[in-house]
Specification:
By secondary structure, the chain is an all-beta fold. The chain has no helices and ten strands. It has a six-stranded mixed β-sheet, with no helix packed on it.
Length: 116
């Protein structure tokens, strides 16, 4: 059974930082490209970042220079370091399997709220 469990969300002030984690199981994590996506209340899904099995990374333009995606294949874990957070970064953040045998699976999400 595929499981993706996000954690690390919370309330942070503008300009602050958070690191999200995603614990993965039930599929070949090390050979799967992974992604973070987010959804703000009342808005559609927004792609945030992706990391591939050769550690190639991609970011949405609005996240470049502020967010860093990484993975630890030994721990079957995906991370998203978020710096210089803005109120518009407020959303539920999901990790998802982008490519591989189980592409399309999502976690339950973790809420990030950026507010003073």
């Amino acid at each position: 059974e595929v499981q993706l469990v996000e954690s690390g969300g919370g309330l942070v002030q503008p300009g602050g930082s958070l690191t999200l984690s995603c614990a993965a199981s039930g599929f070949p994590f090390s050979s799967s490209a992974m992604s973070w996506v987010r959804q703000a209340s009342g808005k559609g899904l927004e792609w945030v970042s992706a990391i591939y099995n050769i550690n190639r990374t991609d970011y949405a333009d609005s996240m470049k220079g502020r967010f860093t995606i990484s993975r630890d294949d030994a721990k079957n874990s995906l991370y998203l370091q978020m710096n210089s957070l803005k109120p518009e970064d407020t959303a539920v953040y999901y990790c998802a399997i982008l490519e591989g045998a189980k592409a399309g699976y999502w976690g339950q999400g973790t809420q990030v709220t950026v507010s003073s």
